Predict the 3D structure of the following.
Amino acid sequence: MADNTVDEKAAFEAIKVPSQSNKVYNRECVFSFQNPYSPGGLYVNLKTFQGVGPDFLPLDQKRNRFPIYLHQQWKRKAKKDAEEDKPTNAPTKFAIGVEGGFQLDDQKIDIIKINTVVVVGPDGKKQKSYPFDGSDKVLPKNVVQSVNSVLARTDSTESKDIFAGSLEEEVKESKFAKDLVQLDNGKKIPNDHEKWACEDSGLKKNLWLNLSTGYIGSGRKETGGTEAAIKHYEDTGRKYPLVVKLGTITPEKVEIYSYAENAMVSDALIDKHLAHWGLDRKKLFQTDKDMTQLSIEAQSKAFEASLITGEGEKQEVATGVGYQGLVNFGNTCYLNSTFQLLFSVPEFKKRYVEFASRVFERSPSDPAADITTQLSKLATALNSDKYQGETDEHKKLKEDTKLPELSDPAAEVKPKMLKKAVARDHWEFSGGRQQDAQEYILHVFQAISRDAKQFPSTPGNSDLTKLFEFASEEKTVDAQSKQVGYKIQPGQTFLQVPIPKPQQSTSKKEEDPEAAQKESGEPKEKKSKTASSSSSATVAAGAKMETVEYEACFKRMLEAYTLQGYTSPVTQQKGVAYRSSRMRTFPQYLFIQMLRFEQVDMTKEGKGYQIQKIRRMANMPVELDIKMLASTGLQKGETALPKAKKAKPQAKPEIVVAVTSMGNNNCNNE
């Protein structure tokens, strides 16, 4: 029979206060998403300072063989506030948890924290408990100091840029403000908002005044404008970047944007610059939504995104194994969607779910920083229903606080440890900003592949990234010799597919604008010079994107593009070649990236080639036949281009002279 006795006195004496270099995981289990709110609470080992759930106490004892833990159990209840029925005002400040900003749900909730110091035997079972109140009446002083320090420390997985407080960006003085050029063109702007209008479209809202030229143009399409203001900046050679939002000028504030600096800015001489155009802040008041209000509205919509479909209807909640959702913590939708996708692949499930217990047993000393451990932790959660359902206690809390959408922290899956483990060598992914999912997948694949090579003895080890790899075949046709070259490019992960413009068809509305106006019931406005007849329907905010069929997308992908200045290996003369690409091999699973940006020829407008975001959607089928993407290799009747000869390296004459002068006569120019 195993000996489960614990030398309590020796264990207490060994406890130390965590130093700044010690990582403390006091908010979540390193092997699961158990936290202090979960049934059974969280146990923090007072030697390793790593938190584990009750189910992992035997494993932690086997790994670390230290018996003393801080046991945290947290409960929530509604606050008894005399003003709980007081109406909540709409936020006026882009901040969280402060007066005038978004109010947190926790401000209506009291958290009851029960902390105890427990002794756990080698079998993982509790043997003794000591209530902890922060004093040293019962426990030794060093134990009290250690526990107080652990409770006071921020969990090592918490990101520094995710916090309750102001979200307003720091507005800096524009570098163009001090020496701002203002044209003397005799133009004056009346201090009467009813007389303001976009000089391009006649719109009366969302107006921006160019401080250099006095031009009034409407804002971006996303906010209901025609982009006349930025077009004026482009048309005047990008020489006049500062604009001010007319409808938000008041004696207290003014909103200034710099196109050149791509940011909201300040101007210490704004009163002087406004006066140049006849404007007096003392005579103006707010008549339009300011940028803070627009940001708040956008953020409020984002807060409701988990409950809203594209048509504004509530989603039907799906529960059960395979339907575990992930919480977005600081713009991590790119991360969440990546791992939801990967763990839907059977091989990923097998690798990280079936072998999870063995992975945890052989995890390194810091499991939170180990990619394989954290992948197994998340995969196990996604393929279970442990973090689903709702307790009667939580239902009552929602009723008492009048917060029907209040989330339960015991049922939240936030892969913070995995995020930090993956991003340890990529600082951009370590922050709270939105990132590109394709770039993130490639980085995750690099980490998985590297981990598989470094730790080949890990249970179930295999480089799963190979499941997604394929080889492409690049075909080049030399226009001068008519000969053809083929080049195989292995190790590809994403098939990049463009989204071309849909073929235009003339609609009844385009044929009869008057009929279209009558049908829409909208008042006639001055026609915008910046909006073409084919795109006028998409100018207003909220307009639907154009849809392109997938066949057109793949047809465009397979089309050859022209290579200017191509040196023919046959004639050795510069000329033109045509290049296209197809798939040489097919992977087991294919990632398709629909390209969201395209190069637009604007040379006629004097702007050269511009990169623009594509506002079109591709209509993809549930099943996709990709045989048409297969490469053919050298075909009958084609002549292969000669392979380019590598030039022999030539030694510099001065080096040859220097070497031979030292007595070495065996060298030559080769």
